[in-house]
Amino acid sequence: MEGIKKFINDYLVRLSIPKINFTDIIEILILAYLIYHVVRWIKNTRAWSLVKGLVVIMAFWLLAVILQLNVLLWIITNTISVGIIAIVIIFQPEFRKALEQLGQKNLVRSFITFDDSKNLSEKFSDHTLNEIVRATFELARAKTGALIVIEQDTPLAEYESTGISIDSLTSSELLINIFEHNTPLHDGAVIIRGNRIVAATCYLPLSDNMQLSKDLGTRHRAGIGISEVSDSLTIIVSEETGKVSIAKGGKLIRNVDGDYLRSKLIDAQKKTVEVKKLKLWRGKNKE
Q: Transmembrane stretches, by residue range (predicted)?
C-alpha cells in the first residue's frame, strides 16, 4: 500500500490538464488517424501477437514502478534497446509491406511521382478485355485453375522475372492453352501488361492475412498477396469449383459473373487512361 500511495503522490498528483489550442487539435487528429491505421494494419499481420506480448510487458513494468521492484525495472530497462532491434529484424517483411502500402496511397502519389517513362504501361484495348473475359469463363467451365494478373501503375517486373517470358498479344486461346493441365506453363501466374502477356509461371507473394477463409488455397492467397503489394487486378479461377474471383487492394471478391468482371476491367481501363492524362498534364506544366 505504501508503494501505491507513493506512486500517487509522485506522479498522479502532478497531472494537470494543459491549455489546448488549434494546432494541438490538428496534431491529435493526425495522431489518432495514424494510430488507427497502424493498429488496423497490425491486426492483419503476425505483429498482432507481438503487440499483445508488449502489453503484458508494459503491465509488468507499471506494476514494477508502483511496487518499486528494482530488479524487474533493471531487466526491462536494459533489454529495451535489444528488443527494438530484434523486432525490426523479425518483422522486416511486415514493415516492408506497410511501406509499400503507404506508397500506393493517393495522398502520397498526388504530391510525389516516382514513376519514370520506362514504367508507363499501355492501356489495354477493348479487344484484350474481351479476350480476358472469354478465356476466364472458358477456363471456369472446364474447372481449370488459373491466375491472371493485370498490371496497372505499380510495375511487376520483380515478379515477371520469376516466370518465363512470353511477350505475346493477349488472346483467349493462348490463355486457355497456358493453363491447360499437364503443360509446362500451367503452374503459376500469368502477368498481362497493356495488350500483351509478358510472362507465365510467375511466382507471387502469398498473403499472410489471418482473417482469410481457411478454405482458400494457395492460388487465392497468391492472388490476394500480389494485390496487397501492388495496385494490380488479379483474376482467380478455382480448380475445385470453377468459380471466378477477383483480388484488388488486398480484398477478395468471390463468385463473380461475366458482367461484374467486365465492369472491373473497364474501371481498370479507365483508371489507366486518367493516370496517363494526368502525367501528360504534369509534363506540359513542367515545360
A: 20-38, 50-67, 73-91
What are the strands of the beta sheet with 244-248, ordered from one edge?
164-169, 196-202, 189-193, 146-150, 233-237, 244-248, 251-253
> How do the domains of the chain map onto residue ranges?
2-103, 117-286
Class of domain 117-286: alpha beta
pLDDT digits (tens, 9 = 90+) for 107-160: 444 444 444 444 444 578 899 999 999 999 999 999 999 999 999 888 888 899
Q: Where are the alpha helices (DSSP H) in 179-246?
A: 218-229
Angle at 206 between CA 202 and CA 209, to 5 degrees: 155
- Assess contact for 193 and 208: CB atoms under 8 A: no
CA 19 and chain centroid, separation: 40
User: Percentage of the chain surpassing pLDDT 90?
Assistant: 34
- Residues forming a β-bridge with 2: none
Helices marked H in the chain: 2-10, 22-43, 47-67, 70-90, 92-103, 106-109, 126-141, 157-160, 172-178, 218-229, 258-286
User: Could you tell me which of 183, 174, 122, 126 has the C-alpha nearest to residue 148?
Assistant: 174
DSSP class of residue 211 equals T
Contact present, 192 and 151 (Cβ < 8 Å): yes
Cβ atoms of 145 and 238 within 8 Å: the answer is: yes
CB 246 within 8 A of CB 261: yes
Around Cβ 22, how many Cβ atoms within 10 Å? 7
For residue range 60-106, what is the model confidence (pLDDT) as tens digits?
788 888 888 788 778 877 777 777 787 777 667 666 666 666 665 55
- Are 89 and 96 in contact by the 8 Å Cβ rule? The answer is no
Half-sphere exposure of 112 (CA within 13 A, CB side): 6
